[in-house]
Design goal:
Largest sheet of chain B: none
Radius of gyration of chain B: 19 Å
Largest interface: A-B, 98 and 103 residues
Oligomer: heterodimer
Distance between the termini of chain A: 49 Å
Order of helices and strands of chain B: HHHHHHHH
Number of domains of chain A: 2
Largest sheet of chain A: none
Number of strands of chain A: 0
Radius of gyration of chain A: 20 Å
Shape of chain B: globular
Number of helices of chain B: 8
Number of helices of chain A: 7
Number of strands of chain B: 0
Structural class of chain B: mainly alpha
Order of helices and strands of chain A: HHHHHHH
Shape of chain A: globular
């Protein structure tokens, strides 16, 4: 029963990828390449490239990519459902207890400690996205960056984007679409 | 807030459009969600939003999916979380199904690449805008402990590359311990 296998594989990927995004990669590799041989190594590399270029978490992208290939559209849907089922169960349970007990002082203390940490985690992820946007080479970090690799057009675009967002309160989705269109004119033509 | 069809449609279309534009995975969607639900729609308060993200963070599974479930649950219970999860999984399901068919052409297309390069700059701008606002709120609260947690966790994530799950657990434990001690100290006086 291929559909059941797909569901179960992606259920495990969803269940064990703690810490989001790239934590899921080794799990996907294990399930899809080693256990089931649903993809070749080359196809797996393609999957990573596509995930970088398309919206959505990598685990969901992998679900659709593998599901479609192995068992068509229904396979894609089943893989996606499998991948989010653990989240649904666990997060809804957590949500239930959070809204029930959120006024307890211990819970308040935990949350008070967590909030600033969440801001930093978002900031740290934001920093890697900023580096990705302003450097020509992929995978640049603070220690490996070189001045000659800086993409000044991109810096100007980021700066302009921040200004329209902060000064004119422009809708963020419009800012992203506008940046994409500017990109076509600058890099594409 | 009335829980009518209009509300559910708004919830669905909001999560759908957020998911459709979050290129680059997980954390990108969090600041965007905050902007949408806290600033634009005024459905959730700032502090509560950070609580929801913190809880989503500590559960397994893609962070974008978990945060959607949490936000949906906060707004309209289990039904709300199913509506928002549907909005979140559909864009990657649709895009990958289409892209997987035309992958070779897609990868080589100059216009597509230029569009994505431009959009990266737009995404970076949106994230910077949100991070500035969130960090400002923490600093403005003049809570020295919060500012300290934010600084230490930022360094831990960026400089020392410490796992996000570990940062979350430690900050939560610290918060529970510190604010509990503070409360006991207060009671004695």
């Amino acid at each position: 029963m291929i559909y059941l296998q797909i569901f179960w594989s992606f259920f495990q990927i969803g269940l064990f990828s703690i810490g989001g995004g790239y934590a899921a990669l080794p799990l996907i590799e294990h399930q899809v390449l080693e256990i089931h041989k649903w993809l070749t190594l080359g196809e797996f590399a393609d999957l990573l490239t596509i995930s970088q270029m398309t919206p959505g978490p990598i685990a969901l992208n992998a679900s659709t990519f593998v599901g479609t290939k192995v068992a068509g559209l229904l396979g894609a849907v089943i893989a996606t459902v499998g991948c989010v089922t653990p989240s649904c169960i666990i997060v809804i349970t957590l949500a239930y207890f959070y809204f029930k007990y959120k006024n307890l002082s211990t819970i308040q203390g935990i949350l008070k400690g967590l909030r600033p940490a969440v801001v930093s985690l978002i900031a740290s992820a934001g920093l890697s996205i900023l580096l990705l946007a302003v450097f020509k080479t992929e995978g640049v970090t603070l220690t490996t960056m070189k001045l000659s690799d800086i993409n000044f057009i991109s810096i100007a675009m980021v700066a302009a984007g921040v200004v329209v967002l902060r000064k004119f309160k422009m809708d963020p989705i419009k800012v992203m679409i506008a940046a994409g269109i500017v990109g076509i004119f600058i890099y594409g033509i | 807030m009335k829980k009518d069809m209009k509300f559910y449609w708004k919830l669905f279309s909001s999560t759908f459009s957020l998911s459709a534009f979050t290129i680059g995975g997980g954390y990108v969607i969090v600041p965007l969600m905050r902007k949408k639900f806290v600033e634009e729609l005024n459905w959730i308060e700032e502090e509560e939003m950070l609580n929801l993200v913190a809880i989503s963070q500590s559960a397994p599974g893609p962070i974008a999916v978990n945060t959607s479930i949490m936000v949906g649950y906060r707004l309209a219970g289990v039904l709300g979380s199913f509506v928002s999860i549907l909005g979140t999984v559909l864009p990657p399901l649709i895009t990958i199904t289409v892209v997987a068919q035309f992958y070779a052409a897609f990868k080589e297309n100059k216009i597509v690449n230029a569009l994505l390069l431009g959009m990266r700059a737009g995404v970076a701008a949106v994230i910077i805008d949100v991070i500035i606002k969130m960090a400002k709120d923490i600093v403005k609260s003049k809570n020295k402990v919060s500012i300290m947690i934010m600084t230490v966790t930022f360094l831990a994530a960026v400089v020392f590359d410490i796992n996000a799950a570990l940062i979350i657990i430690l900050s939560g434990a610290f918060g529970a311990f510190y604010y509990q001690m503070l409360k006991k100290g207060g009671d004695q006086q």
